[in-house]
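Narrative summary of target 7.
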Amino acid sequence: MTETLRVACVQPSSGQDLQANLETAGTLVREARAAGAELIALPENVALMEHRTELVQASAAPLDAHPAAQFFSALAGELNVWLLAGSMGAKTGDGRIANRSVLIDPAGTIVATYDKIHMFDVDLPNGEVYRESDAFRPGGQAVVAETPWGGLGMTVCYDLRFPQLYRALAHAGARLITVPAAFTKHTGEAHWHILMRARAIESGCFVIAPCMWGNHSGDRKTYGHSLIVDPWGEVLADAGEGVGIITADLELARVEKVRAAIPALAHDRDFLPPASSEQEPRRAAG
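Modeled conformation, tokenized:
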């Protein structure tokens, strides 16, 4: 297992033109590869930032026919690089649509996929309303992919607010966790950095979080500030605002050192949830 890794996050400002979005993302991926990155991660909805549910659904396709999956597979093979193709709308076997993150190896082969589990259905205090479940069906399976650097846990955006998922990925062998996102500017300013650092600390993993930036259709604003965070919670790179890339060199042995210093994962225990007057206590996973 390789113990060093140069990783990159790509931070675009995608719009409603899929082909233009792919071309911009491709340019940034090439820049990251030229900077020596061996694993390059793109954000959620990298191929299309569209607020109209009917157009999001119309642009979806089975993964083997999806223009974004085909584009990024060819690009990974051309550049001989591992590529996390953020997320895209993928038609499933039952005809429904998943918000799917795709991991591609240097041969251009899709080696793992993850369907976003937690749907962003919220009414924000500033009046913004989001109903992700109108366009997508939630996934139900956590994923840890095998890479030359060990297990890579896959999550997407709103998953960040559900720490039990990250704990489970760490217990399943993840040393790296990816969080491609299109985090809103409003919530990002309040919570992005602290949540990302918390997920890294509690899982004892490196967290790689490429985030969309800018103004998009439907007056949506995304936060940017793509992050690479080490297992101690130290921010190794922050993209700030604007289109661009960030890179960081990871020493993977840091995972084991941090987990040995504070062996919280080894101390997990089952426990009883709070009892109510209407319900008998039952077992819950810690």
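The two ends are 30 Å apart (CA to CA).
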